Amino acid sequence: MIIYLYGPDSYRRQKKLKEIVTKYKQKHSAVTMERFDLEAEPDLLQLRDFIKNQSLFDSFKLAIVSIGIGGNFSNDFAEFLKSQLESGKTVLLLLADKELSKEFKFLLKKPVISQNFEELKPPQIGALIRKEAQKREIKLPSEAINSLIRANGSDLWGIMNELDKLELGGHAEDALTPPIFFVLLNRAKRGDLSALTWLLETEEPAKIFNILSSFVKTAEDAARMADYDVAVKSGKLGYEEALLDLVISG
């Protein structure tokens, strides 16, 4: 049997993993569980051995397999997984940061159990914060929820960490503290539009642009920022437009 959990939202993916592991431990009195990191070929060999070697004391096996983008298995690994589709005593629980290549499309069909964990949109994140705050018996005003989203974007680990702090005795007002300028700046450099939006609400566009310009490390990036600077000073673009284009284009 194969369970395939994939997508960039590692928080919800990890939560689902814990839920599945707990369920199988409750269901099977003797579970042999092992974790594998398939960044390298030797780990695939260890996984094969784990499944192949059946002990008299093994009533059930659970292999948690983290698939890295550097793994070089492709067709061989795909064929190996196909051979495990009908296995009754072994569950392969596959974890991946993104959907695997076309050779693995069969993982999206039955009998495989698959679930995609895309990053949540702000309204969905807000609903999740309210749900988690209620579990922790924390009362959060809408302003605090919005501030958490602005400060952390789709980083649910960061949001839950802040909620945990509040549960341990923090104050809801703490969530309203404006996020650190350079943290947001780095997020904007990586293409996070929500971070740029927050920066533009609190800082002058020219200041943001000039600080970003001072951080460039390559000749290519320096030339690119110089082109934006010329466009702004010649009146073809405003600083906000230049920043938006810069963040979107990466």
UniProtKB/TrEMBL annotation:
The keyword Transferase applies. Keywords: DNA replication, DNA-directed DNA polymerase, Nucleotidyltransferase, Transferase. GO terms for molecular function: DNA binding; DNA-directed DNA polymerase activity. GO terms for biological process: DNA-templated DNA replication. InterPro entries: DNA_polIII_delta (IPR005790), P-loop_NTPase (IPR027417). GO terms for cellular component: DNA polymerase III complex. The keyword Nucleotidyltransferase applies. Transmembrane segments: none annotated. This is Uncharacterized protein. It comes from Candidatus Harrisonbacteria bacterium RIFCSPLOWO2_01_FULL_44_18.
